[in-house]
Design brief:
The structure is a single chain. The protein has helices spanning 9-15, 45-52, 85-92, 94-97; strands spanning 34-40, 58-61, 71-78, 104-108, 123-133, 136-146, 149-163, 171-182, 186-205, 211-229, 234-239, 243-250, 255-263, 266-273, 290-292, 299-303, 310-316, 321-327, 331-334, 341-348, 353-360. By secondary structure, the chain is mainly β. The longest helix has 8 residues, at 45-52.
């Protein structure tokens, strides 16, 4: 996970000339990274206009938005060995995975994929799988447990989100598709075209006044969904409205700092890196934070400095807050009632924000 100093960013950016950023495998999303985002929906027209503007050495100033965000969400990227064993073998074994070989996964809600199963079913442990290498950043597939059984979706043609290295004025386009058969029920699938253009770079100012040197990328997604039901022998193609994403990427952060989504030219979502992001506000060597045992089935010990004053928070992999406690010293948490799985333990104050992953096993 990348570590950076939020407190120093505004100072450094004011005294140093911004350099045109280059994004590659070494400074983009990696397994173990956790990004917290605040989302905003009620924007004035002039604020929406700032989103679409761009150019070289540009400044996007969102400081006027304030801090009245509506929702805090987390993107949690995990190594393959943090997914169910069958998923790890399927996507991590070069002989089985082939072109779908992956090296990290994003915890998701199944319906975040934009798909609907032909009939209502219980879906758990959903992940989207990625491969990051010297050629680019790819979506390779997804997997869920449906009624307790693994359901694997692999892309026939991978969805290449970005080609590496990624620089200002770079452009790319690729077609992607997958079709997943749900035994005795039907099939769901998707095909589409992703095209992007790195249309700007410069200084991005967030509502908390943090400043980042970013590459800005405009992406168009033209997607058609496929649904087929065995019982009725009925299938349909559903063409989605054109989706346009504006994404600000910082090599300093190692991922996305902000992203806006437009559907049919209407802004539907805007998310920005939270100032309380688990990407750590200061150098971790200066803050003594540890958790044990791990894995844990009962009492979890959270060790923090005696002079700490802030919050200790437990969050599941979907970003749902399970427990929050005010802490001024090391504390203990009872996780015996939590379902087995992966959780984030974060400590937050005005000065620091750290998170560590635990595994609950009974």
């Amino acid at each position: 996970m990348k570590k950076f100093s939020i407190a120093l960013c505004p100072i450094l950016s004011s005294v140093l000339l911004l350099a045109q950023p280059t994004i590659d495998q070494s400074n983009f999303i990696q397994a173990g990274d956790v990004f917290f985002y605040d989302t905003y929906t009620n924007l004035a027209l002039e604020e929406v206009g700032v989103i679409t503007q761009s150019g070289a050495d540009f400044t996007w100033d969102f400081s006027a938005l304030g801090l009245d965000q509506e929702l805090n969400i987390a993107d949690t990227y995990v190594p393959l060995d943090s997914t169910p064993e069958f998923f790890e073998i399927f996507f991590g074994n070069p002989f089985l995975a082939g072109n779908n070989l992956s090296n990290l996964a994003l915890t998701i809600d199944f319906f975040d994929l934009g798909l609907e199963l032909p009939v209502p079913l219980t879906v758990e442990n959903s992940f989207q799988f990625y491969r990051s290498d010297e050629e680019g950043f790819f979506i390779t597939g997804s997997a869920s447990e449906v009624e307790g059984l693994p359901l694997i979706s692999t892309y026939e043609n991978l969805d290449r989100i970005y080609s590496f290295p990624l620089n200002y004025l770079d452009a790319d386009e690729n077609a992607f598709d997958f079709l997943t058969v749900v035994p005795s029920i039907g099939a769901v699938g998707q095909e589409g075209i992703r095209s992007y253009f790195a249309d700007g770079w410069g200084e991005l100012i967030l509502p908390g006044s943090e400043v980042y040197n970013c590459l800005r990328v405009r992406t168009e997604l033209d997607i058609t969904d496929t649904i087929y039901i065995d019982f009725t022998s009925f299938g349909s193609l559903i063409e989605r409205p054109l989706q346009v994403n504006y994404t600000w990427i910082s090599p300093e952060v190692g991922g996305t700092v902000a992203e806006a989504t437009f559907i049919d030219d209407a802004l539907t979502s805007l998310r920005m890196l939270s100032s309380a992001s688990a990407l750590s506000a200061i150098d971790p060597d200066s803050f003594d934070f540890s958790i044990y045992p791990n894995p844990v089935g009962g009492t979890l010990n959270v060790s923090i400095p005696d002079n700490f004053s802030g919050l200790v928070q437990v969050m599941d992999i979907t970003g749902r807050i399970m427990h929050v406690v005010n802490a001024r010293r090391s504390t203990q948490l009872d996780v015996s009632g939590y379902p087995e799985g992966i959780y984030l333990i974060s400590v937050k104050s005005e000065a620091v924000s750290f998170a560590k992953r635990i595994v609950v096993q009974h």
